Amino acid sequence: MDTVSAADFRGALGHFLTGVTVATTCGPDGEPVGMTVNAFMSASLDPPLVLLSVARSAASFAAMERAGRYAVHILREDQRHTSSAFARSAAGGVDKFDAIPWSRADDGLPLLDDHLARLECTIIDRVELGDHVGYVGRVDSARVAGGSEPLVYFRGAYASLTPG
Q: What does DSSP assign to residue 151?
């Protein structure tokens, strides 16, 4: 059987519409850490579990490896700026949280103030997934802020669910 090239695999998956999220956690000194993630899914309704997949090459990977909790923020269609800010590498010296309103949960977990919905999770399992690691999170809190449509990604670009 032939092996699928990375380019062909990425091209095929680009035809799968995905939502855009920002995941946040704490770094080793309690500093806020965040990254744009579209490899996110519901894993179970009972108990409520989600899976967040993080590339080993991601600047935020080391923080996720040490984290006990994370939050997932489902973005609205008007939050492309938030997605772009958190997609930047931390190595570039850009403080992702500077231009984004945020606060801390009682346990210190960084939470974005603005979102379509937010899940606060405790990591209960870690799954090796090739060049990624999956973090299974038990959902401890679910908040729907509401608003407009979700921010989505399709064929390598932001897309809209709104006709027109």
A: P
Q: Which domain does 139 fall in, by range?
A: 6-155
88-114 confidence digits (pLDDT tens)? 765 444 488 988 899 999 999 999 999
What predicted TM-score, i.e. pTM, was given to this entire model? Answer: 0.91
Each residue's pLDDT tens digit, 110-127: 999 999 999 999 999 999
> 74 in a domain, yes or no?
yes
| H, E, C per residue of 26-89 | ECCCCCEEEEEECCEEEEECCCCEEEEEEECCCCCHHHHHHCCEEEEEECECCCHHHHHHHHCC
Interatomic CA distance for residues 73 and 14, integer angstroms = 22
CA 123, 35, 15, 19 dihedral sign is positive
Question: Residue 18 maps to which CATH number?
Answer: 2.30.110.10
